[in-house]
Amino acid sequence: MPDPGTFRLTHRRVRLFSDAGKSEARQLADELKPFVAEPAEAIVVIGGDGTMLRAIRQHWTDRLPFFGLNTGHLGFLLNDPAADHFWDRDLRKYTLPLLDVDVGGPNGRRNEVAFNDCWVERESGQTAWIEVSVNEVVRMARVVADGMLIASAAGSTSYARAMGATPLPFNADLLTLAASNVLIPAFWRPAVLPLDTTIRLRNLDPAKRPLRGFIDGIAQGPVTEMTAKASDTAAVELLFAPEYDPVAKLAVTQFPQLG
């Protein structure tokens, strides 16, 4: 698990990506307009984790780091809006690989990238029958469940956690494989695998038990197969004020808040 680097806005030039549907996000965007200039040194994302995922999906190829300001709920990938004068401070910089996702379906194959996760789920009233291969070796010949998910460490606090997976430090060199409502194998639990693992999910009965796919929550339509691994080339950099480091937020996701 690599240590974070350090980043500072040398010229105070940023690009904004905000959730225009929320008044708090619009207000923050207005306050930061004096810093909007090109060439930008970073992309400031204002909204929730979903806004950050959209920003990454649309702009990761710009090769600019992302600094998030949370106007949503938990905001695991973002900083608190009270992050004081972030444009004048040393920030922690995490470099995180994207997932390289190969999707096969009735209309052929295509390649996508994911930051959090990718998954397949049943499209009809029939349970899904899924074959699971790890590094081209079939590890589970038939999983009977509602669906299966492959998550990066950053995505382990999202849907993977809802499927019973243990949240991981978001910069851990690990992948999570999880499933929902598993009938067979009985009592199977989510698996944690090294980052360099290639995981393939294959529909065993696409005619009777069709599956649909999702990548970071974006519908991919009918799928017969989905393969994911950490990308060798695609990555993003996330910035955090030291007091909002996401590793420290991990406890919030694992322990109930009382009082």
Considering the chains and any ligands shown, give keywords for the structure.
mainly beta, 2 domains, six-stranded antiparallel β-sheet, 259 residues, ten-stranded mixed β-sheet
Question: Can you write the helix and strand succession as a string?
Answer: EEHEHEEEEEEEHEEEEEEH
Output the structural class. Answer: mainly beta
Query: Helix amount, in percent?
Result: 10-25%
Look at the structure and give the mean pLDDT.
93
Q: Considering the protein shown, what is the CATH homologous superfamily of the largest domain? A: Probable inorganic polyphosphate/atp-NAD kinase, domain 2
Task: Give the number of helices.
Answer: 4
Main sheet makeup = 10 strands, mixed
Radius of gyration, in Å, reads: 19 Å
| Number of DSSP-assigned strands | 16
* Low-pLDDT regions: none
Instruction: Note the overall shape.
Output: elongated
> Which CATH class of the largest domain?
Mainly Beta
What's the architecture of the largest domain in CATH terms? Sandwich
In the CATH hierarchy, the third-tier topology of the largest domain is known as: Tumour Suppressor Smad4
